[in-house]
Write a structure and sequence with these properties.
Blueprint lengths: L8 E5 L9 E5 L5 E3 L15 E2 L11 E4 L4 E8 L2 E9 L9 H4 L12 E3 L17 E6 L1 E7 L6 E8 L5 E11 L5 E10 L12 E2 L4 H8 L6 H7 L8 E5 L22
Parallel strand pairs: 4-7, 7-13, 8-13
Antiparallel strand pairs: 1-2, 3-5, 3-10, 6-7, 9-12, 10-11, 11-15, 12-13, 13-14
Length: 268
């Protein structure tokens, strides 16, 4: 699966983080997803609280069939009971990160794409353990891609996963604000993952946390949230409401986009 982050195993040495150095192994998944603005429903809570989308209006002006790590995405946060979508970089940039680590410039070791955060490690893995208590967000999506290993050879076949009713949904996310040496601020986010349901389990041992409507308000509630309550919300989504099917390998290419990427593969 060339250039896709969903199957890379990143080994992150906690060097400049507070506390003792630890090795954080992040078996990433959900490395590509899609969002169709025409399908997007502004329904973040049971009472359909309106989301201010003005800051991401240009980005949402067209469908995105192949959203990739480090690209700009839309993430919804709660401020003073107002839900607002902000543009964020997909891939957490920890506070204090040297700007050269984003590009590998100047001989610096490039920062792994911290696009996923395991629910069972949130309270112990840096940088997420400083974010889960209060820096939570919702990341809207219409579906996501996962790759299945071929039992005959080493190839991997892309599959598209969505709700059966084709409605958009919300990933549980974490976000962070990073400031560079010139005091420029960048907001970044990661998708929280959990154990797979019966739909996803045959091809991967993790899946993104998709929050039901009645759990979104709790996820965004103000103030610190304990790890126990976090894990109560991070449950595998109801498999009876989801479907998965194989799609064309064109999605492997970082420059690919368009509705053909989510069409079911009808021939081998």
């Amino acid at each position: 699966m060339a250039l896709d982050m969903s199957r890379r195993q990143n080994v992150f040495l906690q060097g400049n983080a507070p506390g003792p150095a630890v090795v954080w192994k992040n078996t990433a998944m959900c490395g590509r997803y899609a969002l169709f603005p025409g399908q997007f429903v502004i329904q973040a809570t049971p009472t359909e609280t309106r989301i201010d989308m003005s800051r991401v209006a240009d980005w949402l002006g067209r469908p995105h069939y192949n959203i990739k790590p480090t690209q700009q995405v839309a993430a919804v946060v709660s401020r003073d009971d107002q839900l607002t979508a902000f543009p964020m970089r997909w891939g957490i940039i920890p506070r204090g990160t040297n700007p050269n680590r984003l590009t590998g410039a100047g001989g610096a070791k490039k920062l792994p794409a911290l696009i996923n955060a395991r629910d069972d490690r949130l309270d112990e893995a840096w940088p997420y353990k400083s974010l889960y208590k209060s820096n939570r967000c919702l990341i809207p999506a219409s579906g996501y891609y996962e790759w299945k290993k071929n039992t005959v050879d080493t190839t991997k076949r892309p599959h598209y996963i969505r709700l059966k009713n084709e409605e958009p949904f919300m990933f549980a996310g974490l976000w962070n604000a990073w400031t560079d040496h010139d005091d420029n601020k960048t907001a970044s986010c990661a998708i929280v993952t959990t154990a797979p349901n019966q739909i996803v389990e045959p091809i991967h041992d993790r899946m993104p946390v998709i929050l039901p409507t009645d759990a979104r308000r709790e996820w965004l509630q103000a103030g610190d949230m304990g790890i126990g309550m976090i894990r109560e919300l991070c449950l595998p989504y109801d498999p009876t409401e989801m479907e998965m099917y194989e799609v064309n390998k064109a999605v492997d290419r970082r420059d690919s986009d368009g509705p053909g990427l989510i069409e079911a593969l009808t021939s081998k």
